[in-house]
């Protein structure tokens, strides 16, 4: 029986080539989109699940509370893992990671000249016991247990030594010091929040000899014993804080607490917590999941619409089958088999297409697609489930209608499909509602990205280049600056601890002097040239001069001039003019004198409001050169600066970073969302327009005689277009109203994540809806033109 069903189904599908082609293409595009998004979501969800007992590994984060203000940080002190191992029986193991790239790059020399590397960390001897990555060369026992040992990743070993096995036992210089390569590990997978190329022994660092409770510059992890009550463990850590830090915290007016974060929650967790590799906001995963479901729904809707539209064309077939003895179940099976064949064909084509688009998508979205997953047991099961679900969902309603026809009415052309037209109209409305809604979302995301690119940040990021330098270069910086300016390629150069768009150092203002408020503040260590170099606006007072005292070497409670921003003086209730000359307590000195007030500028992501900032005259803490290029050709200016750099710093590569590009990199996640929204909204529109083309084709086919008569009576092509498009345009109007409601909701939800956001305008709605309407009219217009070209004498004769 099923063999006969399949034979007849293939025959029917070949006979109706337009119908088959539209449905097959629509389902294939929808399935490709669905599977690609599913693979992307699987990749994001699979982060840090490759470790043995990953469910028992936790990162230890820290909370600071001062005067009711809470600040969460993703790092903690170096003494924490040692204490946990010694005093907490529920801790099976603990490890520490010191990400040196946060502070500076390192120079690596394997005997063929120095190279600057950024993915460098120091870890303790327990690292490979907590994170069980495989070693390609070397032994895990005792690895990284001695100073000046280092482990390379496989790709790094190949880059420097040709192979992993050639690297083991060799040595290389790290910032001039010899390190012995004791092992080569597999590359960190793309779905690990850890991303390094070099792992040096933490015992090479001075803090390993005397670990302390401050500063909190380390990523610490614990592996708890099976059955551990995590809440009880956190409560015990609170007792540890009181035991070791209670007195000091009370003296400085702080409270602190350590809290756990499952390692599997790091990538999709709180984006404000610092991590080794940027994470993804989990709301994007949910959004993409919904988009995937909507796209597959649109593909299924195409089939349902076309199948129900052509139901009246197949009435004689159904009538004859019933007269010949076919029952409803048999007819239902016959018609469902057609949708199952199309579903299977779409699955096969989609797998082929996915293999073709995998690499372009990785380049486009920045996420690799694990194609091996498709042919794993769970992948094959999922594809079979998808095949059955799509085939049954697409074929159920049309098959129900076709199999339920009364034979006499079907043979007599007196059949009316009850509810069919209403269902088709509803599904068309849904298709174009989704298409318009996704396109509106794309334009909303784009408008916020444009706002972030164009907003006045309070400083000049154009034509500013940043160069990282090592602390051992500090003595040569004045000469380097002088020569760069003398070359004419630079007009101003400043030293700073961070780039101005990403200042991270946290401090605290204490009551004292002329201030009674206590609050958290961001500190920025710079030299006197910063104001001129990035064009900060000085609202009151004066800038630093070379004769002003610097923080390093300041006598205890010695006077130190500082600059504050508007938000800082607002916290203290002062105006710009009132603040000049005021004395405040910044922790390391209670004799900080306010010398100047700068206009607020965005020193972090636009997700946050501008907070209080103190700018210290402290060039010894700086490790970034900010260079304002001279007017003219930036390429030529960079070449001149590079020549100076290579002359004075021959052992260090020249790796400039443009400040505007580094600022744009803050919003890579949002840019990725905008690109993916744009891609899949275009796909949704394409599928919907294909379905519309098919529906218009069937309407035109059924109304060919009417159109021919109208043409004989003098109707123009515009009249034919009006006849065919009027009903569809009404449906698109309903879709537009629904899409506007969705767009308003999405705009509010999306923009709520930004403390600084663009104003919602009408243009994203107008452009998106007009774009879809124009494409729909073009689709209908093309089909009406094809019908209008038919010779009326032939069509009327055939009738």
Written overview of the protein:
- With 799 residues, the protein is of the alpha+beta class.
- 49% of the residues lie in helices and 16% in strands.
- It has 25 helices and 24 strands.
- Strands 1, 2, 3, 4, 5, 6, 7, 8, 9, 10, 11, 12 and 13 form a 13-stranded mixed sheet that branches. Strands 16, 17, 18, 19, 20, 21 and 22 form a 7-stranded mixed sheet that branches. Strands 15-23-14-24 form a 4-stranded antiparallel sheet.
- The protein is globular and about 100 Å long.
- The two termini are 37 Å apart.
Summarize the structure.
The chain is built from 25 helices and 24 strands.
Question: Mind sketching the topology for me?
Answer:
Blueprint: H1 2-15, H2 17-45, E1 57-66, E2 69-73, H3 79-87, E3 91-99, E4 106-109, E5 114-117, E6 120-123, H4 127-130, E7 135-137, E8 149-153, H5 154-161, H6 164-167, E9 171-174, E10 177-185, E11 198-201, H7 206-209, E12 219-224, H8 230-252, E13 255-262, H9 282-309, H10 315-323, H11 328-365, H12 377-403, H13 407-411, H14 420-454, E14 464-468, H15 477-486, E15 490-496, E16 506-509, E17 519-526, H16 530-534, E18 538-541, E19 560-565, H17 566-571, H18 576-579, E20 583-584, E21 592-598, E22 613-617, E23 624-629, H19 634-648, E24 657-658, H20 659-664, H21 668-702, H22 704-712, H23 717-751, H24 763-788, H25 792-798
Parallel strand pairs: 6-11, 8-10, 17-22, 19-21
Antiparallel strand pairs: 1-2, 1-12, 1-13, 3-6, 3-12, 4-5, 4-9, 7-10, 8-11, 9-10, 14-23, 14-24, 15-23, 16-17, 18-21, 19-22, 20-21
Helix pairs in contact: 1-11, 2-9, 2-11, 2-21, 9-12, 9-14, 9-21, 11-12, 14-21, 14-23, 14-24, 15-19, 21-24, 22-25, 23-24
